[in-house]
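Hey team,

Sharing the ATP-dependent RNA helicase DeaD run so nobody has to redo it. Sequence (591 residues) first:
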Amino acid sequence: MNKFEQLGLNPSILKAVEEMGFESPSEIQEKAIPVLLNEDTDMVALAQTGTGKTAAFGFPLIQKINSSAKHTQALILSPTRELCLQITNELKNYSKFEKNLNAVAIYGGASITDQARQIERGAQIIVATPGRMQDMMNRRMVDITKIDYCVLDEADEMLNMGFYEDITTILADTPKSKNTWLFSATMPKQVATIAKKFMKTPIEITVGTKNQGTSNVSHEYYLVNSRQRYEALKRLADANPDIFSVIFCRTKRDTQKVAEKLIEDGYSAAALHGDLSQNQRDLVMKSFRTKQIQMLVATDVAARGIDVEDITHVINYQLPDEIETYTHRSGRTGRAGKSGVSIVIVSKSEVRKIKSIERIIQQKFEQKDIPDGMEICRVQLFHLANDIKETKINHEIDPYLPSINEVLEGFSREELIKKFFSVEFTRFFNYYKNSSDLSSTGGASERSSGGEESTRFFINIGAKDDFDWMSLKDFLKATLDLGRDDVYKVDVKSTFSFFNTDAVHADKVIETFKSFKHNGRHIDVEITTDSGRGGRSRGGGGKERSGKPFKGGKSGGRRSEGFDKKGRGDKKSGDRGRNIESSLKRRRSKK
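Structure output:
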């Protein structure tokens, strides 16, 4: 007996299951399907991405729908167009032996009138993104006032993307008598709020532990100087010749920048972010699914709903703002029972976040060293040897062999092997022979003590100008056109502030602010001898660079030595702060 038969599924669904090659239900399917089939209940189901949640709600939904009635009976909300289409296609496969059952996908970037027409012809199940769904509701193109079932798929991702208001508005238009099934990988507060507000004593099913990562994924981190992230990424790619990966960056700019560098260095890579048109996104994803692209560099939002098999590595080029997001990232690999690796590239100041993630996912990270050049040469050499060993002989080459043998006549077998392998070996050897050791026990905080040479600046704007360390850092990065890691040790006082850049940017900083005005006021920037010790450094007391709290970290931070809360010199440290404010006032009065 097929194990799916024991769950109580109809013969038509079992026939589709058999045709699709499913043999055993996953844990979430085994737990959820019998309950949803036999009870009219609300449900919260928590399971890691890639564990078969679509079938867990899809099979019961198809079996409970009245296919002879054409009106909409079920609504499935999902975060992205890609996931919306994926769910719809899977439902069609599950219901291929059900007569007259129709599932329609509605999402942005496609004709809204065409989608409305499909619904009008009869759609018992609508699979929708929240934005397009609300748009169609506002235009009265869809009626969900009589639905029996509402499914929130990847609920945490939808809420992370800012769809809370859309979801609550949509749910408010549905009947209270419906059953709501919420499927999510993690259980942040907003998901719990939705469950409490719109669900009636839901049955909760958890596979693993809440927010826990899948056991099929191993977690590694590499400690490097923050200025060497890209070099570290490049070496990790070279050390894993068969890598098929998603590389996560925080911003669209960093995503594009990293992808362009990889392409310049000869890797098959592409960027996926919000500035791409839908057509460009579709082309990138098509190339990635067919493995024409080996490394996809993506933002978290753009990567929502990516469901591509055989991803070997997820690389966190930068850690996300929230730990739950790391769970989603790592869930892109290790799917369908296969193993995967989640890699984090961190500077010294970020290591504490690894400990926070470990507590949430209940798995340990292994610290590893970035491979050195000679290790990469060895890996590439043996990879080539194995490729040659596994290559099937194409006998179309036979007519050319006499001429080839003539060219190579006189060489021994050993000489031919050496020459053949030297082609690839020499390429990597020449690149890496003078390379430095990237593994670091320091990282970002070493910039002013043994790392990159650093310059500290004084600037005459501060808290009274409505800046805190986060907003000032963003202002400086935008004004100077520098990257996220290029402005650091930002220390905001009452009427002035300090910040650091690497010494290489010093001239650019001075030149940019030479005649610069902010809100009509001239901005003074000067190089200072202030060490910045004790001030908020790059992460600033447990907050991530974007300013969002990194859950699990400590909050708060020490103010700079010698200053009170208002930026004035305290009694123990003399009048350094007061003297700087006085000189500032004198400069202003002269102007």
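The two ends are 89 Å apart (CA to CA).

Ping me if you want the raw files.
A.
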